Amino acid sequence: MLLGVIVGLFLYLLAACALALLLLVPGARAATWRGLARGHSRLRSWQWRQAQVAQSLSHKAGARGVHWLGFVRRHAWPIGLALLVLLLVPAALGLLRLRLPADTYDHRLERPRDERIAALLMGEQLVPPPTLPPELFLQRELEQARPLVRSANREWALLDAEFRQRLLVVFQILKERHGYEAVLIEGYRSPERQAALQALGPQVTQAGAFESYHQHGLAADVAFLREGRIVISEREPYAMQGYQMLGAAAESVGLTWGGGWRSLKDYGHVELRRPGVLRREAGHAHTH
């Protein structure tokens, strides 16, 4: 495996050198064509002048080597720049591939099985928590983090049955294992509300009407209740720690966590993705 990688890199370096010379130095192209033409001519008369041509080539090879060495020295900067670009591009792409997480949840991947979570998903249906007082959702901090949050829908009954059960399991994991009391900030969202949020700008959402799982009851925005106050700001260590736990719990029950997106990360967002549900899914990165 390692030997194959080394050989591949060596061949790539040779190809990069040749490409740099041909693309950046016109003289190299002319010299290459002359060399090919000369070689073709010599090949046709090789059988007749085998000994003479061999002796002639030995002398010319030395002269040509000196010629190319001077040529490389005269064009060191463009050749070096071309090599640097050709070598850095695949390295940068490989690094990005390793560092950037995927935006989608692939159900085909095998994940560690938690028997207790599996039992919760297959067992008795969990009951949604009691409705919270509307006054809790009048905080200025909450409005800044979630525009139009006061008019958001928080009815558990409007969520998809499978998604609702998985989300309740997440809430139970957060409370029993980590002592965090999760709060539903918004669940189902009408197409009109989605369009209104999109009109506020891409910093709020990039999804239009019927382009979000919220419209199908398959997404929810979550925060945490602490000492009678909703904690939602990512600047608070308590909330950020809770979001990390939320992401782990959500992924353990097959949900997609918004904190794992490449850009416009939405740490409080979770959703259950189903193929063919959204109006446009190809190339759609965010479904908040």
Task: Give an overview in words.
It comes from Inhella proteolytica. The chain crosses the membrane at residues 76-98. It holds the Pfam family Peptidase_M15_4. InterPro entries: Peptidase_M15C, Zn_M74/Hedgehog-like. GO terms for molecular function: peptidase activity. By secondary structure, the protein is an alpha+beta fold. It folds into 2 domains: 2-99, no CATH class; 115-271, Muramoyl-pentapeptide Carboxypeptidase, domain 2, CATH 3.30.1380.10. It contains 9 helices and 5 strands, in the order αααααααβαββαββ. The protein has helices at 2-24, 26-44, 50-74, 76-99, 115-122, 140-145, 161-178, 191-199, 237-252, and strands spanning 181-186, 219-226, 229-231, 256-257, 269-271. Strands 1, 2, 3, 4 and 5 form a 5-stranded antiparallel beta sheet that branches. Helix 1 (2-24) crosses helix 2 and helix 1 (2-24) crosses helix 4. The longest helix is centred in the first third of the chain and has 25 residues, at 50-74. The chain is elongated, with a radius of gyration of 31 Å. The model is unreliable at 97-111 (pLDDT under 50).
Task: Summarize the helices and strands and which ones pair or pack.
Blueprint: H1 2-24, H2 26-44, H3 50-74, H4 76-99, H5 115-122, H6 140-145, H7 161-178, E1 181-186, H8 191-199, E2 219-226, E3 229-231, H9 237-252, E4 256-257, E5 269-271
Antiparallel strand pairs: 1-2, 2-3, 2-5, 4-5
Mean pLDDT metric:
78
Radius of gyration, whole Å: 31 Å
Strand-residue proportion: 5-15%
Beta-strand segment tally? 5
CATH architect. name of the largest domain: 2-Layer Sandwich
Looking at how many chains there are and whether they match, the oligomeric state comes to single chain
What's the helix-strand series?
A: HHHHHHHEHEEHEE
Shape field: elongated
The separation of the N and C termini measures 42 Å
Q: Could you list the spans in which at least 5 consecutive residues all have pLDDT below 50?
A: 97-111
Which CATH top level class of the largest domain fits? Answer: Alpha Beta
Q: Count the helices. How many?
A: 9
Number of domains: 2
Please give the share of residues in helix.
40-55%
Largest sheet: 5 strands, antiparallel
The chain-level structural class is alpha+beta
CATH topology of the largest domain: Muramoyl-pentapeptide Carboxypeptidase, domain 2
